[in-house]
Write a structure and sequence with these properties.
Shape of chain A: globular
Number of strands of chain A: 12
Number of domains of chain B: 4
CATH superfamily of the largest domain in chain B: Pyruvate-ferredoxin oxidoreductase, PFOR, domain III
Number of helices of chain A: 10
Distance between the termini of chain A: 62 Å
Largest interface: A-B, 57 and 80 residues
CATH topology of the domain at 7-214 in chain A: Rossmann fold
Helix content of chain B: 25-40%
CATH architecture of the largest domain in chain B: 3-Layer(aba) Sandwich
Strand content of chain A: 15-25%
Strand content of chain B: 15-25%
Number of strands of chain B: 23
Structural class of chain A: alpha/beta
Strand order of the largest sheet of chain B: 11-10-12-13-15-14-21
Largest sheet of chain A: 8 strands, mixed
Strand order of the largest sheet of chain A: 2-1-3-4-6-5-11-7
Radius of gyration of chain A: 22 Å
Structural class of chain B: alpha/beta
Radius of gyration of chain B: 27 Å
CATH class of the domain at 7-214 in chain A: Alpha Beta
Largest sheet of chain B: 7 strands, mixed
Oligomer: heterodimer
CATH class of the largest domain in chain B: Alpha Beta
CATH architecture of the domain at 7-214 in chain A: 3-Layer(aba) Sandwich
Chain lengths: ~325, ~625
């Protein structure tokens, strides 16, 4: 590296074709910022996407990239990862791409824990096909394909990931630039599959889906931005907190307890992560959680040897085998 | 004094748990070392252990060996080994009149007779069904148990060794050396002394039984075949295919990545390659067929030789991914070991019915080269060529094999790597690497783009499934551009005809009355047929087409010199459609069969004779 690269050095020469006001712009910008800040080498960085609005992402990055087919970015990236240990590989996918048509590949990637960074743009809608409900759309949502309201129960991304054996699960939102940057860095820093769900507003087909979590008026009471080692507190003046009643999470007045008695966030605690993913996420009583939900400490390296071609001498011996006869 | 015969066909038939495939393959290995030419045909049910004693559970292994060239496993067999009543019922119709029937008495008790649908109160050996055969009743199960009376094995394990008794007996009849089988058993059971000793004991018991039971009149010698000089080994189709992929990896100096999902009859390729993952092969057992194809595309994008293997149902699932490789213009070899369809069809039975699917089974206009293997050992060369075309022309290639080829085996005069053509990947030159800028879809004179893998400095580029602009590869919806890109993709594949071997006649002269044109597994049976016709004084020839798309440049010129052209296929007429389309001036007549089993020589012979007669009328 001669000069330190700037965020703009990671932008390609292509015009951005997302709808003006789309949350994708913010995510693109923060990703470019983060790559510059971590001194990423554009030639060693690869973005692989599937199909959908978010999957146009690689075209806008001055790195290597592939805009592939619907749902399969995770599978393609897996093959690339297995054959190339040296690259920094990012998967860009959406809620439909990753959890509907590509659901099978996502869960298997998570259990295999290949070293990839997965950015899951969740806008709870199909945007590119013009507004059908997605596997994360809220129940009763009225869309073009559910004019009387969808009767389906949505996936909870965090719970799905946890159940699949993910070793790193985090969530951020397009409107929180600093938090998003921090989460991108953390996801990148994880050795194994880092899954970052990013709430992303589609203001054309599902505007305001995450407004409660980004509007200043409601954000403080509706969200907890979790930090490792700190209590889970929320409310306009941080006056509320989460606490365990046995294994059951409850909401309490912060003033009634010392911090030690509250739920202290521990990213590496599998039980707490399980309760966050499976209980807290599924009950609207609780605020929405953001931040690193679970980060498993690094296990023994599963990485195998560098890949090389078959040696001529090896295949020659193999071809002749051990039972030959001459004529 | 042993009888002398020029060729013998034997079928080993028993319950799927009786070890007939092992018996057959061990006899095959021994036959190879004996110097005979041979062809084999394993035929077994899809169920791993179908209900014991029933027809559904019969597993068979047919081998035809001789002191001359052998092209097929034989229309009928001289010897049938039937381990139980169901096996007898299933296979007896294939035994030649006055053929030898060897049965294990334990498999013919009342229960077995009833399960096989015989009258349990009747002595089946005395029924008219068996009137015309030379029957040898052997108490194989009983003698096996007796031989193992001192063995620590339990009764069930002892019982399962009875296939070795039969193997021993057959080896004795054909005057073979038993050493290769003992070596095999030593190796197979090297970690289990009891099983090792028991199996060796039983194979020896069977071998010496022939002597003591005074079966000497059956002893037969089939001399070694005068094959072309060279070093030989025995090889199965799927194994040869795996070796071909590995050889291509070595020649092209590319790591081999094999993404696959288990499917009959392709799984043995995965099994073989998985043994070599410490030596330049990476196998990936994907979560499904789609991921198997996609992971291989990812590996190719990264600069590896991406290969995915499957059978028909899997090819259907991979269709979209193959098209991605096509529009990306990345190398990808897709192996389709065909089986009888449609849908799940008959997984363990053979058919050639995916050809038009390979040709056309994708959305949009999407030409892909197709290479076909025409026999077990040819899988090596076919796989090698599929890789060569994929890498050198930056395209997915479909390699067609089938169940019959995959599981069949034959002597293989194996090549040395130096004999194989080189494989040169289209990388950027050193000068090009140093130049500013890079157009990912700029092409050479053969319309091939450069393969630049991630990690290459200053050549970052994006590729994708959307239509791309000429040269730059940027997304383009321009009408003229799409027309041109469509033309280029078609022309690129058509140009491959210049780089594949010229078509040759396999049998016969360059002109005549009758030409048989085949592809894939019909090689041997057509070969036997044409040789027979020639022996009868007919002017017949054979062409076996390995490069189906595009066809070899000279193929069309070969047809004119024949009065009639027959195209035998194990489908309802697929190659013939492509031939008619490509060579409209010639007329082709198909003979077709869709039964899940190969052609018999007699079928092709009679059809050919009929056609010749019709012509001379």
């Amino acid at each position: 590296m001669i000069d330190k690269l700037k965020a703009k050095d990671f932008a390609s020469d292509q015009d951005l074709r997302w709808c003006p006001g789309c949350g994708d712009f913010a995510i693109l910008k923060q990703t470019q910022n983060v790559l510059a800040s971590i001194d990423a080498d554009p030639a060693n960085t690869v973005f692989i996407s599937g199909i959908g609005c978010s999957s146009r992402f690689p075209y806008y990055m001055n790195t290597y990239g592939m805009h592939s087919i619907h749902g399969r970015a995770t599978a393609i990236a897996s093959g690339l990862r297995l054959s190339r240990k040296d690259l920094d590989i990012w998967v860009v996918t959406g809620d439909g791409d990753s959890m509907s048509i590509g659901g099978n590949h996502l869960i298997h990637l998570l259990r295999r824990d290949l070293n990839l960074n997965v950015l899951l743009f969740n806008n709870e809608i199909y945007g590119l096909t013009k507004g059908q409900y997605s596997p994360t759309s809220k129940q009763n949502i009225k869309t073009k394909s559910s004019p009387f309201g969808s009767t389906e129960t949505p996936f909870n991304t965090l719970s799905l990931a946890f159940g699949s054996g993910a070793t790193f699960i985090a969530r951020s939102i397009d409107r929180e630039a600093k938090h998003l940057q921090e989460m991108l860095k953390r996801t990148h820093g994880h050795e194994g599959t880092g899954l970052l769900e990013i709430y992303q507003n589609c203001h054309i087909f599902n505007d305001g889906a995450f407004q409660l979590y980004s509007d200043r008026s409601s954000q403080k009471i509706e969200t907890i931005f979790m930090e490792h080692g700190k209590p889970l507190v929320f409310g306009d003046n941080q006056e509320l907190a989460m606490k365990f009643d046995g294994l059951k999470p409850v909401i309490v007045e912060r003033k009634d307890f010392s911090d030690d008695e509250l739920w202290i966030h521990d990213e590496s605690d599998r039980l707490k992560a399980s309760i966050l993913c499976n209980i807290v996420e599924r009950d609207v009583v609780f605020p929405k959680i953001f931040g690193v939900v679970f980060a498993q400490a690094k296990l023994e390296s599963k990485v195998t040897n560098e890949t090389t071609a078959v040696k001529s001498s090896y295949i020659s011996t193999l071809i002749s085998g051990n039972k030959t006869w001459g004529v | 004094m042993n009888k002398q015969r020029t060729n013998i066909a034997i079928k080993f038939a028993g319950d799927s748990g009786d070890g007939m495939q092992l018996t057959g393959s061990q006899f095959t290995d021994n036959t190879a070392l004996h110097g005979n030419d041979f062809a084999t045909f394993p035929n077994y049910p899809a169920e791993i252990r179908a209900p014991q004693g029933t027809i559904h559970g019969v597993s068979g292994f047919q081998i035809h060996f001789g002191s001359h060239e052998i092209h097929t496993p034989g229309d009928e067999f001289d010897v049938l080994v039937a381990m139980n009543a169901a096996a007898l019922k299933d296979s007896i119709s294939g035994l030649k009149k006055n053929g030898v029937l060897i049965i294990d008495s334990a498999g013919f008790d009342k229960k077995n007779l009833r399960l096989a649908g015989f009258n349990p109160d009747e002595d089946v050996l005395e029924t008219p069904l068996l009137a015309n055969y030379d029957i040898i009743v052997v108490e194989a199960t009983k003698l096996t148990k007796e031989a193992l009376s001192d063995s620590p094995l339990d009764a069930k394990e002892k019982d399962r060794s009875k296939n070795m008794f039969v193997l021993g007996l057959i080896l004795w009849i054909y005057n073979r050396d038993i050493a290769s089988v003992k070596d095999f058993l030593e190796e197979k059971f090297k970690n289990n002394k009891a099983l090792r000793e028991a199996n060796i004991k039983v194979v020896e018991t069977g071998f010496y039984y022939g002597e003591t039971a005074e079966l000497s009149r059956y002893k037969t010698e089939v001399n070694a075949a005068p094959l072309p000089p060279g070093e030989y080994r025995n090889i199965m189709g799927n194994q040869a295919l795996a070796f071909g992929l590995m050889a291509a990896s070595a020649s092209a100096k590319l790591p081999l990545f094999y993404g696959s999902y288990p499917i009959t009859p392709a799984s043995d390729i995965l099994h073989e390659l998985a043994k070599h993952t410490k030596n330049g092969v990476q196998t990936f057992q994907a979560e499904d067929e789609i991921a198997a194809a996609c992971s291989s595309i990812g590996a190719s994008f990264g600069g590896a030789l991406g290969v995915t293997g499957t059978s028909g149902p899997g090819l259907a699932l991979k269709s979209e991914a193959i098209n991605l490789a096509l529009i990306l213009e990345l190398p990808l070899v897709v192996v389709d070991v065909q089986r009888a369809g449609p849908s799940t069809g008959m997984p363990t039975k053979t058919e050639q019915s995916d050809l038009l699917f390979a040709m056309y089974g994708r959305n949009g206009e999407s030409p892909i080269p197709i290479v076909a293997s025409h026999g077990p050992s040819h899988c090596f060369e076919a796989a090698y060529w599929a890789c060569k075309l994929a890498v050198e022309h930056m395209t997915p290639v479909i390699l067609l094999s089938d169940g019959y080829i995959a599981n069949g085996s034959e002597p293989w005069k194996y090549p040395s790597l130096e004999e194989m053509p080189s494989i040169l990947a289209p990388y950027l030159s050193i000068e090009e690497l140093e130049q500013e800028g890079f157009l990912p879809y700029q092409r050479d004179e053969n319309l091939v783009r450069k393969w630049v893998k991630p990690g290459t400095p200053n050549k970052q580029h994006r590729i994708g499934g959307l239509e791309k602009e000429l040269d730059t590869g940027n997304v383009s919806y321009d009408p003229d551009n799409h027309q041109e890109m469509t033309n280029i993709r078609a022309e690129k594949v058509a140009l491959i005809a210049k780089f594949i071997p010229r078509q040759e006649f396999l049998v016969g002269e360059q002109s005549g009355d009758l030409l048989l044109v085949g592809w894939g597994n019909t090689t041997g049976v057509i070969q036997s047929t044409v040789k027979e016709l020639i022996k009868e004084g007919k002017k017949a020839s054979q062409i076996q087409i390995d490069f189906i798309h595009p066809f070899p440049e000279n193929l069309g010129d070969m047809f004119a010199a024949f009065k009639q052209i027959i195209v035998p296929e194990l489908n309802s007429g697929q190659l013939i459609q492509l031939l008619k389309l490509t060579y409209p001036k010639n007329s082709f007549v198909g003979i077709n069969k869709v039964k899940g089993v190969p052609f018999k020589k007699q079928e092709l012979l009679e059809f050919s004779q009929k056609m010749l007669k019709r012509r001379s009328r």
